[in-house]
Design brief:
By secondary structure, the protein is α/β, with parallel strands linked by helices. It contains 18 helices and 21 strands. A 6-stranded mixed beta sheet has the order 8-13-12-11-9-10, with helices on both faces. Helix 8 packs antiparallel against helix 10 (167-196). The chain is elongated and about 95 Å long.
Length: 507
Amino acid sequence: MKVIRALISVSDKTGVADFARALEKQGVDIISTGGTAELLRKKKIPVREISSFTAFPEVLEGRVKTLHPRVHGGLLYKRGNPKHEKEARDQGFEPIDLVVVNLYPFEQTIAKPDVALAEAIENIDIGGPSMIRSAAKNYESVTVVVDPTDYALVLETMRDNEGETTLKLRERLAIKAFIKTSAYDRAIGTFLNQEQATDASFSLMMPLVTHLRYGENPHQKAALYGDFEKHFEKLHGKELSFNNILDISAATSLISDFDEATVAILKHTNPCGVGSDPDLREAWEKAFATDKQAPFGGIIVCNREIDESLAKAISEIFSEVIIAPEFSGEARTILQKKKNLRLIRLLDPATELLPKKDIRSVCGGLLVQDADVGIEEAERVVSKRQPTESELNAMRFGWRVVKHVKSNAIVYAGPDRTLAIGAGQMSRVDSSRIAIWKAQEAGLSLKGSALASDAFFPFPDGLLAAADAGASCAIQPGGSVRDEEVIAAADEREMAMIFTGVRHFRH
């Protein structure tokens, strides 16, 4: 259809003046509103105000300006349909062939800290989505543009087709328009549901980032959605896999709990070694010493720039992914010699990347919960013996790690390193036994270590096994009906013990 008349009303005015000027040169009659009309007039582009087109003033502080039969009649009537054509003539509807609209910046508004509910509501666009939907519904005759990046394509198509757009282009732009209004409404609903604390359906829409080669296994299709690439930059290596992305997220979550210079090694999202030291090479040695077998093909994350010394050390083993806020030039030279290694730069502080919601698919639906982040734990010494400062630091170190280990989770730790980790067993005692066995395999002594458990000990046996292995203190949530028995067992072995009151299950 040839574009004779266009209605332009945009919040994002990027490129709109150049687009409108190009339309005007092709003889297109331009109608506009408010700030858009003002901008076009300043650029000496002929424009008709919407109130002139509708013969009705903008009212209610601009809330009502395009919600008018002449606007929607001009968009919706079927060209070539005799009944529609006659009614359009009788009602004085002038055809509108092109709609250029982007919406009030609702999502940018609610992204501001402490945004007021009233301000958010004022940024809910009504007329814009209505025009978009009318134009998109009638895409056989009307072109709708919701994205400034499509201006050039529309102009190119019009130049190549004597002022007309193609049905294929109109159809594609209509689909894009409906996706846009759907995402916009979903953002509004999600925000209001949180603000008003109502019970409503859960919905989520994210843009496609990329299709992945496959999922967890080669027979599973997979894709990545959201804005992952805005926060993680791949500096080197093959494309990321589904499992790489899961591990990167787990590693980022773990490292966010450490302010001091720290190196962590993960495998299948489980930590297998964490060490802290101002000397990153020393931090690596502490982490790697925990388990020298599991890190093969694993993920390494560091919360400081990786320098030449650390790069030399970690290059001695095969890793899938190395993550850091920066890599020195010397470090990149060393690490980029490994063509299968992915180097990932954190573009934002890890604490700013943590998801707010944890979403899991289940048979017949989804489970949605708050992410296990930002919990303030209230430590309470429940044993007769108070912990020493070194024991307290060791317990706190282990506690920061154990929340990232699959349940049942046990971590033996010193003040600045993990010593043994037991993960994912059906019995907490078995997790402890595995951790003790791993420490023996690594040649590490657990004498004087701190035991961290992600959930309470249901019986004293797990604590006693730790004491037998050499642990001198323990940190756990508490909350078992047998807490008193467990505390008595700690006192019998002269162990210091802390209850946090917070559980960290990871199913």
